[in-house]
Amino acid sequence: MKTKDIVEIEVQNQENYDNLLVSIEASDRKLSLLIAVCDDSNLRDQIIARYEAELAPEIRPYRVTLARGEPSLRSAISQLVEKDEYLKNCGRAVLTVTGVEQFYFLKLGAERSEQEIFFGYLQWTREGLREFPYPIVLWVTNQILVSLSKKAPDFWSWRKGVFRFESKKTNAVLSTEAHSFHQFLNGDESLKHDQADPYFLPLEDLQQLIQQIEQERGVKDPSLATLYARMGEIYKRRVEQGEALDYKQEQDLGIEYFRKAADLQTGLGLEADLSNSLDNLASLYWLQGRYTEAEPLLLQALEIDRRVLPDDHPELAKHFNNLANLYLLQGRYTEAEPLYLQALEIARRTLPDDHPDVATRLNNLAGLYESQGRYSEAEPLLLQALEIHRYALPDDHRQLAGHLNNLASLYRSQGRYSEAEPLFLQAVEIDRRALPDDHRQLAGHLNNLANLYRSQGRYSEAEPLYLQALEIVRHALPDDHLDLAISLDNLASLYRSQGRYSEAEPLFLQAVEIDRRALPDDHRQLAGHLNKLANLYRSQGRYSEAEPLYMEALEISDRALGSNHPQTIAIRDNLGILHNELSDRLNK
Amino acid sequence: MSEDLLKAFQEAYRNLELLPLLDQRELDKFRVDFGHEIIEELEQLVEDSPSGDGKIIFTGHRGCGKSTLLAEFSRYCSDRYFVVFFSISDTIEMSDVNHINILFAIAVKLMEEAEKHQVQIPDSTKKTFYRWFATKTRIEEEKFSAESSVGFDLFKLISGKLKADAAVRNEIKQEFERKISELVERINEIAAVITMSSKKEVLVIIDDLDKLELSRVNDIYRDNIKALCWPQFRIIYTIPIAVLRDKFLRPLIETETNDQIVVMPVIKLFEKGASRQPNAVPRQEASEILCQILKKRISEQLLEPEAADKIVLQSGGVLRELIRLANECCRICLRLIRRQPEQLDLKIDDEILDKAVNNIRNDFAIPLGKTDYAILQTTYEQFIPDDPKQPEFLDLLHGLYVLEYRNRQNWYDVHPIVIDLLREQGLI
After folding, report:
1. Which of A68, A352, A424, B186 could cysteine-pair with A408, CB 3.0–4.6 Å?
2. Chain A residue numbers touching B122 (CB-CB < 8 A)
3. Distance between the two ends of chain B, CA-based, in angstroms?
4. Domain range for A79
């Protein structure tokens, strides 16, 4: 800029002063953003004093000084107005805002400088300023003016005028802004809560809403896609949480609603929703042991999300994991492994190393290795998972208990009983502290500890634990819940090991009975329990009763798991033993 | 009597409001009916949505009348649709806007609007919604039962929290980051309940998403457009016009919205190249609209017709700049009256306009650097810059230094006032 002589500067300053003055006068009861620019704070203060005096008393003067560390124009004005009756009643006033010049433009290690934050607020709270029906004179420096026009462009576009005042003298440079600064520590990671209440609508309300829509807008109405899926979720949750009044029926209802949702979603091309519904459907089929029906659904969901989501989306990891779980259950270990590995890979890539989800993925892969007998590979994974959880979760977190339990189970499978015991005990201890007395996880862990004692032949210690677990399950779950069948089976197995056959028999029978009621005909669990009942009869020499049970168990297991699954093989072996024993007898 | 003159100019000054016309009174007073083809276009897209879940992207230059038009459109639709129209900047702090809290804001605003219009919702359903919202925003739920007045307060409170409380926003983000579907299902459910009770389908219009920094817009739309398009009802989203230059984002948005992008154009005063001709005459239709807008706000007694025509030309067809220029003229007149209270006759003429243009040109000049001038020069000469995707160019476009006009083919021109700057610099 060329140097102007003092006279010229004075003329221009006067003109700008008048411009500012008339703008304030004309802005009657309306927001008017007036930007005044001056680098010389003395000159600025003179000008402010001058216009305030000239406008009073009709237009009352107010001053707002923006505070360091609170760079929001809107909130500063709001605080002023809040406290002042006259302003609240929209009396005529002029608001003079200073203090912007103090904001640092240096970032000082922060993500954004104070000035940038200030501009951010200006840009973004512009709409909010509309509630202040006054002329607002915002004093800035030339440096700030340039940044403001760039960084708060929308605020800038609402300016009602810019008024520049030039200083006649040159100022010495002010002292530097050499304050020390605090580096703020991030707050601790907020922890995930388990199974938080999803606040589903009351079933009746939702049913009624659906009915109304079906009647008034037809069964193809797009809003039904969500509502059907919601119904499905409600049933699914009830089933999973043991809240179902009729276990089997509610499973079926869940399936029915997810099916309806999926049909609509397919028709409407709502792929993301469809993938969700398929996944939910699959898990319900899974619960029913209808693995062959679950598989294509999981594959389809995976296929959709592979197409529409980025490669490392957590949703994909979920599908990989679910599919792998299914294969693991079916004994298709070689197919499961790469899927678990991919799920783990995604978690590792997208999450911090110590994220609980990483731990879950590690845990699942370990489960596979354990099933394959690859104990030495499983152990480090479980240890890693446990380590993550020790850091990420509080000491009494139920998930931590789950991981302790898994490691302990591994040790038990390896026969490392003395290492397993304290872990099981800790898991139970955590459950007792963290969960309600009748929580099924506690029952599960009690069962496992009891299983350990049984493996060690410590039958008298095992029995009360089994009984406690059974009591919990009986209390907490519906009569035909699968966990109840498992609990009955465990206790029965103990009695059988002790030779208490007559006490074992009714328990096994009950377990089978529940399976037959709650599960489809070809569920692996039914096969397992039939096999055990048959074992009992065989031990008692009741061969004619045992044989058809083995046959049935074998047939089911073959169908559900395939002929090479360890369970199928075991049943076939048992049947073989039965035949051997029979022929031995005949030979005698 | 100069008192009258003062009053007249003061009134004109006030009427030359730069803010969008949102309430009905302002609209009635100042609205000039010009964007009706845009309204029709929006209406058609809204109406034609086969499953009632169309997503529409709305964009245009800063200050070309988008917010005013959206406000009008929302009123226009309100007898057929349950319209929820809100500004995202009123709802969430800027640095924290992301797809999750946009969706959450939709949920809150749906409920707020339902409470406001006393939409009949079964108490048990309401109660569930309240509890859900209260939990997600960490509000103690005992305070809220299903009484009707309570709901409204609750959503006001939540709105406040969403806006002011970073911890709550963070909470919401953590909560839904990995399960957007839960949030979307909840939104859909609320919309379904509202639709059934009000007998109107839901239309959500979100304004001011175009005020976000481009980098944030990228985050939001690039990675999460699917989530934003997920809800099962009609939504109109705004975006910065510069996004349409992005060769990655544009096709993405086109695909996800089924190519439902509506651009509000700058009013085209000249056909391409015509303004460079000596004694160029602007398109009559365009200049009439702009003149009309002026006339609604400033009396003809205060403005020479020739000056009015010139203001129109200098606006480049951007409404807010038109108003700004006229407003600046008024200010000069007010100053003159203040200095010489005795004068009885004063009109905005060429001389005053020149001064006003000069002042505004100074504002334009503030942030311009060398690169900017070079881009402006090329654009002036070729009606297109060398690289329309260059960030500096996008900033200029965003800042109205360069205007985009639409024909069968799009072309650019430098803002008329900025052309003077180029001349001053000896660049043209």
Report:
1. A424
2. 205, 208
3. 47
4. 6-164
Domain-embedded: residue A32:
yes
Mean pLDDT, rounded, for A412-440: 85
Helix axes A291-308, A314-329, angle to 10 degrees: 160
* Bridge partners for B46 per DSSP: none
Give the best residue of B70, B196, B337 to mutate against chain A (max A CB count within 10 A): B196
A220 and A130 assigned to the same domain: no
For the ranges A1-10, A413-422, A570-579, B224-233, which has the lowest average pLDDT? A1-10
Q: Do you find a cis peptide bond into A310, omega within 30 degrees of 0?
A: no
Strand partners, B413: B403
With contacts defined as CB-CB under 8 Å, which chain B residues touch A310? 223
Total domain count, chain A: 3
Q: Which residues partner with B404 through β-bridges?
A: B412
Residues A93 and A205 in one domain: no
For the domain that residue A37 is a member of, what is the CATH number? 3.40.50
User: Rounded CA gap, A231 and A252, in Å?
Assistant: 12
Residues of A in contact with B188 (CB under 8 A): 223, 226-227
- The reported pLDDT for the residue numbered B148 is 46
Q: Residue A258 belongs to a domain with what CATH number? A: 1.25.40.10
The encoded tokens of residue A486 equal 């498992």
Residue A446 lies in a domain: no
Q: Does residue B122 have a cis bond before it (omega within 30 degrees)?
A: no
Give the DSSP letter of residue A289.
T
* Pair (A150, A14) in one structural domain: yes
Partners of residue A274 on adjacent β-strands: none
Distance between B52 CA and the closest CA of chain A, angstroms: 8
Among A190, A202, A222, the residue with its CB nearest the CB of B128 is: A202
Q: Does B225 contact A at CB distance below 8 Å? A: no
Beta bridge partners of residue B268, listed in sequence order: none
Q: 3-class SS at B237?
A: strand
Q: Which of residues 9-38 of A touch B (CB under 8 A)?
A: 15, 18-19, 21-23, 25-28, 30-31
b/e burial code for range A91-125 (CB count within 10 A of at least 16 → b):
ebbbbbbbbbbebbeeeeeeeebbbbbbbbbbbbb
pLDDT in tens, A28-76: 788 899 999 987 777 888 899 999 999 988 999 999 998 877 788 988 9
